[in-house]
Design brief:
Layout (H helix, E strand, L loop, with lengths): L4 H9 L15 H26 L11 H27 L21
Length: 113
């Protein structure tokens, strides 16, 4: 004869006796919940990382236009000119060429001609 559902439920759901078997951890329930949540978050991040590299790329890398290349070349040239002028002013003790008022030029008279 098959055991009744109540007997199975009573057998499965009652608190087990402490007979020295199993792992006994003396952590409060809130700490266990926090550890489980942190572990689940870590697994989600790992799954996202794997899916990101394993999945197809939705957006191909868009090539920049010739106008964008020209603009960036101009910006780099202006930046290089500014850096070189600031270095020249610092080396020869002249006033700074910066427009924002800050300067790295020292006022040491030994640097002047």
């Amino acid at each position: 004869m098959a055991p009744s559902v109540a007997l199975i439920a009573n057998n499965l759901l009652h608190k087990r006796e402490q007979n020295g078997s199993g792992i006994q951890v003396d952590l409060p329930p809130l700490a266990i919940i926090v550890l489980v949540m942190v572990g689940a978050g870590f697994l989600i991040l790992m799954a996202y990382g794997i899916a990101r590299f394993a999945g197809p790329m939705d957006k191909p890398i868009k090539e920049t236009s010739a106008a964008q290349h020209d603009y960036m070349r101009e910006v780099r040239a202006r930046n290089l000119d500014g850096v070189m002028a600031e270095g020249h002013a610092a080396r020869y003790g002249r006033a700074s060429t910066r427009m924002d008022g800050s300067s790295v030029v020292s006022e040491d008279p030994r640097h002047r001609r």
